[in-house]
Design a protein that fits this description.
By secondary structure, the chain is of the alpha/beta class. It has 14 helices and 13 strands. The strands form three sheets. It has a seven-stranded mixed β-sheet with strand order 2-8-7-6-5-3-4, sandwiched between helices. Strands 9-10-13-12 form a four-stranded antiparallel β-sheet, covered by helices on one side. The protein has a two-stranded parallel sheet with strand order 1-11. α2 (37-50) packs parallel to α11. It is globular, with a radius of gyration of 20 Å. The relative contact order is 0.17. Bound molecules: pyridoxal-5'-phosphate (PLP). Pyridoxal-5'-phosphate binds next to α3.
Length: 344
């Protein structure tokens, strides 16, 4: 079989043998009746880590974010988020569908929302205006190249939301990448947020699952919404066991994904057909091709050589490192990137 280096996303990882063994040995029960001990252990472990009261295991990050939006708002409210954010760009407009709210997508500083941006965008209380009820921030930012909030940036945006009586949700699909890169601890940042969504199936490498964190009674309400969305699952401790395993073994190693992403960045810097690169902070590398290079053609040439990547916006390409990308895979990618220079 031809070797494929898949840099399309960190969602493409396959469970390791250790993870599969943990899944096989999971003690399970019916989670709709709240009787799966492994799910409960995972929910409690993440809640404790981030200093929250309770957790809720969800099938996907999209469902977890959508439940959070639904539970923080009422119809005719509005949420503020960055224009590049996942909740705005990639969740099918679910905020309108599930929650009947408006969205105010603002242009942050490379995806980072500031206290000033929040304050400028909170609407006055008027009968004819949607009511600003929620802000969503994303850390690390997916579409903005895996960049991270600093502790001070999170503190400021959280304080601003609280001063104005609006809720703040963290889309932490890749929060562990951000924590590793910025050397922050979960309990340092958890209390800044009313709710947090944490994906297990990205950098942490499980087959599926996202945990939503928040206050106990708010999570109780979230459980009802999860059921209404069809996300109540039965012996799902099998997946929660993968999550617990990932917390034990796949968090510290995220630093390796970041090192390999920086290696890709330095390789790209030496290529004539690369115009610019978003500075790499975590495991996502986004770069712009020179004007005369067609991104679709670039992607297909890469693929012909066994390296999968995705076109991302007009002239950009995204590469994502993950659990299944080792040093030889990066070396092979380097060879291909250099070789296709003459084919473009
Ligand atoms: C992947 C991702 C999600 C959730 O995606 P699912 O595919 O539904 O699990 C949410 N937010 C961000 C920033 C993501 O990258």
């Amino acid at each position: 079989m031809k070797k494929i280096v898949n840099l399309i996303s960190d969602t493409v990882t396959k469970p390791t043998s250790g993870m599969l063994e943990a899944m096989m040995n999971a003690e399970v029960g019916d989670d709709v009746f709240h009787e799966d001990p492994t799910v409960i252990a995972l929910e409690n472990r993440l809640a404790d880590m981030f200093g929250h009261q309770a957790g809720l295991f969800c099938p996907s990050g999209t469902m977890s974010n959508q439940i959070a939006i639904k539970c923080h708002t009422r119809p005719l409210d509005e949420m503020i988020c960055d224009i590049h954010s996942h909740v705005y760009q990639y969740e099918v407009g679910g905020y309108a569908f599930h929650s009947q709210i408006a969205v105010n997508p603002v242009r942050g500083e490379q995806g980072i929302l500031t206290a000033e941006l929040i304050e400028e965008n909170i609407k006055d209380l008027k009968d004819w205006l949607p009511r600003t009820r929620l802000a969503v921030i994303e850390n690390s930012g997916n579409r903005t190249g895996g960049n991270c909030y600093s502790l001070e940036q999170m503190r400021a945006v959280s304080a601003s939301c609280r001063n104005h009586g609006i809720k703040i949700h963290l889309d932490g699909a890749r929060i562990f990448n951000a924590l590793i890169a910025t050397q922050l601890k979960p309990q340092e940042i958890g209390p800044f947020f009313d709710s947090i969504s944490i994906c297990l199936s990205k950098g942490l490498g499980t087959p599926a699952g996202t945990v939503l964190l928040g206050p106990k009674d708010w999570i109780a309400e979230s459980r009802r919404i999860r059921k209404a969305m069809g996300g109540g699952m039965r012996q799902v401790g099998i997946l929660a066991a993968a999550g617990l395993y990932a917390l034990d073994f796949h968090v510290i190693r995220l630093a390796e994904d970041h090192r390999r992403a920086r290696k890709l960045e330095s390789i790209l810097r030496g290529l004539a057909y690369v115009e610019s690169i978003t500075p790499v902070q975590t495991n996502i590398v986004i770069f712009n091709l020179a004007r005369n290079v067609n991104p679709a053609e670039f992607v297909s040439k890469m693929k012909a050589h066994g390296v999968n990547c995705s076109a991302f916006g007009k002239q950009s390409i995204r590469l994502v490192t993950h659990l299944d990308i080792d040093d030889p895979a990066i070396d092979y990618t380097e060879t291909v990137l250099k070789k296709i220079g003459s084919e473009l």
